[in-house]
Amino acid sequence: MPEFLEEWIDRFFEPAEIDLVLLMAEGPLDADTPGGRLKEAVEGDVQGYLNRAVRRGILNRLPDGRYGLADFHARFEVWALLEGWKDIPPNLRASLNAWELDHYEASHREEIRGLQAGEPIRPERIWPRYLLLEEALNLMDRVPHIYLWPCNCRAMMGRCDKPAVTCLRFSNERGIGWEISAERAKAVIREANRKGLMQSGETGIDAKGNITGALCNCCADCCYPHLLADRLDAAGYFPLSRYVARHLTEECTGCGRCFKRCPFKAFRAVVRPGAGEGGPKKPRVELDVDRCRGCGLCAVGCPEEAIEMVAIEKGPGESADLEVEE
Asked: Which CATH class is domain 243-311?
């Protein structure tokens, strides 16, 4: 954990968990015989204690069946999602978020720079990309399991009042998420879109050809991919843009829903004089395509169908894109 949190360690770890972390410094534990090294640290149900430590982001289950220490980023996520986020002062919360965002940047910086230089995304790499609403809905039929989680970004940042229980993950190693049906997941997506959240597939392909990762319903205020895109001047690459909006001006009535729904201020309302002097003022909507990232919120919300989403023919990382429409 970062040094500035040391005096607040009791907000994150119970006393027995501190003993467990110190004990685990000696190396992973064998899941088949966990009692030996834990006998002095844990009383009662050792296996149950290990399972709880996994759920709380303190331990990981390793591929060989043993248990190893998770890093503090995992503990922070679980704590922010489900536990005592408000138990630390605001300045400490801000420092912790800055520390987490620095770590997030370090994990993605080189690949973002590579993508900007024309390198493809590795297929197995979990990478965020904007999905249109129908693509996101179709994706739910292509994964075997869906688990509903609170949004970790909004839980950590807390910069907006958008719906929070919106993350749809395709695995559930810590046993925290609620497994839901594809139809229920689609209802979550539709409601999130209605509330102004973008659909982002944080997805990759594993060695067996299965889709891994999650479907996120994102805002531009809290969600880490968007914060990192602003920090690294990587709009369009992270998340990956695959479409751009086209404004059909002859169909537009100037209702203004598009500039209310667009998270990136790509639309704006311009007032123009009506016919004749002293006539009524009529709004005109203008689109700045350089601000558009292709999330599609504007098109879904347009009552006149005056916006269409056009595929980017040779977008960055296109060769690694998911065939989400199948």
From this structure: alpha beta
